[in-house]
């Protein structure tokens, strides 16, 4: 019994050391779990992924589980820094390393690559995802209806494009998307599938959304692992994935602010400084877009209780001032209102980059 207490105390001291104080896999603070086969401390979320890899990792709670002397010594001899030196020694510079808020898919890719496939323990010149052309089937939501149909997707690393085809391939691709103009976010809840993905790209200055999922994601994990890094090579992830700063419904009125409010699905893309809105959250094409510039250029945001508005069911107002127009949005709850103001402030407080001026001019021209 004495050992049990002593071992627990040692573990709690170990996890407080700077080298162990963040999750070994995603960097989240104060990990509460440990892999006693890999000798690392991880957060609750990453521990879940480790549990699915019994051949390489065994997870224990550092507070609740029993630890014998030998295992505690093993943890002491290893730890997160030692594991990083071993398992992350040759991570390519472009390789995406997940953050604490990233979804399960990205974490799982990273953890499997590190410990199961040991991809980064040695220097390699050829990696599977740097080869040429990949293709596979994804289920894609129809543009104007909710029906998902199986479509062939082809990713070419040579010309850096993603194409997809309808049943009759002889007609050529339905779309050819330059990977540079493409954004992909994992959206399991929105699409209603564990491996649901929202692919966004621009056509003539308009945003187009594709909602897809891979059928075998859950059932056959290997199939998925082969397919997904193929379709979205993980080295491209920094190019193509950005999580939207905030998404959700708000009500919106027209330019005179006397038009009736309509409920719209909003997406704030902080990288492109765009607040996009759609009729519903699974719409292929946006209804409109508001450019969000910086404070120095006359943009601001604040909470408000607007007077004289009508048709709004919701009461928590957000006002966005732009040099040429004031926008009024209504949120259902104070929490949404606060989150929208905070998210918009984050964008407004960032200085504008040269390309932002082009985006701003294009959006104004469209109006
Ligand atoms: Zn973690």
Automatic annotation (TrEMBL):
Pfam families in UniProt: ArfGap, PH
Principal location class: cytoplasm
GO CC, alphabetical: cytoplasm; plasma membrane
Domain of life of the source: Eukaryota
Organism of this sequence: Sinocyclocheilus rhinocerous
InterPro entries linked: Arf-GAP_dual-PH_domain, ARFGAP/RecO, ArfGAP_dom, ArfGAP_dom_sf, PH-like_dom_sf, PH1_ADAP, PH2_ADAP, PH_domain
One BP annotation, GO: heart development
Signal peptide: none
TM region(s), chain numbering: 221-240
Compartment list: Cytoplasm
Alphabetically ordered keywords of this record: Cytoplasm, GTPase activation, Membrane, Metal-binding, Repeat, Transmembrane, Transmembrane helix, Zinc, Zinc-finger
The protein's name in its UniProt record: Arf-GAP with dual PH domain-containing protein 2-like
MF terms in GO: GTPase activator activity; phosphatidylinositol bisphosphate binding; phosphatidylinositol-3,4,5-trisphosphate binding; zinc ion binding
Domain PH: 243-349
Chain ranges of the Arf-GAP domain: 8-128
Primary gene name: LOC107755564
PANTHER family: ARF-GAP WITH DUAL PH DOMAIN-CONTAINING PROTEIN 1-LIKE PROTEIN (PTHR46021), ARF-GAP WITH DUAL PH DOMAIN-CONTAINING PROTEIN 2 (PTHR46021:SF6)
């Amino acid at each position: 019994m004495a050992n049990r207490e002593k071992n627990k105390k040692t573990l709690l001291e170990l996890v407080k050391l700077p080298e162990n104080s963040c999750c070994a896999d995603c960097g989240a603070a104060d990990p509460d779990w440990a892999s006693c086969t890999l000798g690392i401390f991880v957060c609750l979320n990453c521990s879940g992924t480790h549990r699915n890899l019994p051949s390489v990792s065994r997870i224990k709670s550092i507070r609740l589980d029993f630890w014998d002397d030998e295992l505690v010594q093993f943890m002491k001899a290893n730890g997160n820094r030692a594991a990083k030196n071993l398992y992350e020694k040759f991570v390519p510079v472009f390789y995406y390393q997940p953050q604490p808020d990233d979804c399960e898919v990205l974490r799982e890719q990273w953890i499997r690559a590190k410990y199961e496939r040991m991809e980064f323990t040695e220097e390699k010149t050829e990696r599977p995802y740097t080869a040429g052309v990949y293709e596979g089937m994804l289920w894609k939501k129809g543009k104007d209806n909710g029906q998902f149909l199986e479509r062939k997707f082809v990713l070419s690393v040579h010309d850096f494009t993603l194409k997809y085809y309808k049943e009759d391939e002889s007609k050529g691709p339905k779309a050819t998307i330059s990977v540079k103009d493409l954004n992909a976010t994992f959206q399991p809840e929105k699409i209603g599938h564990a491996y649901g993905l929202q692919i966004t790209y621009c056509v003539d200055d308009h945003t187009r959304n594709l909602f897809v999922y891979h059928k075998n994601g859950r059932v056959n994990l290997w199939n998925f692992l082969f397919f997904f890094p193929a379709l979205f090579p993980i080295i491209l992830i920094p190019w193509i994935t950005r999580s939207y700063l905030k998404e959700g419904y708000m009500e919106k009125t027209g330019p005179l602010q006397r038009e009736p409010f309509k409920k719209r699905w909003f997406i704030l893309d902080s990288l492109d400084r765009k607040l996009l809105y759609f009729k519903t959250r699974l719409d292929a094409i946006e209804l409109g877009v508001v450019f969000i510039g910086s404070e120095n250029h006359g943009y601001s945001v604040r909470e408000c209780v607007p007077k004289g508005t009508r048709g709004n069911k919701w009461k928590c107002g957000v006002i966005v001032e732009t040099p040429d127009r004031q926008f009024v949005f209504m949120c259902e709850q104070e929490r949404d209102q606060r989150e929208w103001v905070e998210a918009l402030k984050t964008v407004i407080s960032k200085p504008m980059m040269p390309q932002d001026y082009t985006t701003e001019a294009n959006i104004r021209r469209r109006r």
